[in-house]
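Good morning C.,

I know you're traveling, so I'll keep this short. The sequence:
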Amino acid sequence: MDSGKVKNKKLYYQKNKERVDEDFTDGILSTIGNTALIKLKSLFYKSEFDVYAKMELMNPGGSAKDRPALRMIQEAWKEGTIGPGTTIIE
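The tokens, ready to paste straight into the viewer:
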């Protein structure tokens, strides 16, 4: 099991037929750990520094638990504790 951060460049056409270069991930596991950050401009417009919010709802499972869950599953797989056909219940 590898959650490698492999990204493939793919070219596709939008409805208006213009060429668009987009990044696509190599499977759902590669999206874990790349949580989007949103700059909170309107809330902190008078601030001398930038403030960002981590958008955990953008994770594949919709929570902050994705990263530790992936790590536990990877470790169990590596140790042989789980394997093909193993049922995992949260």
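Safe travels,
E.
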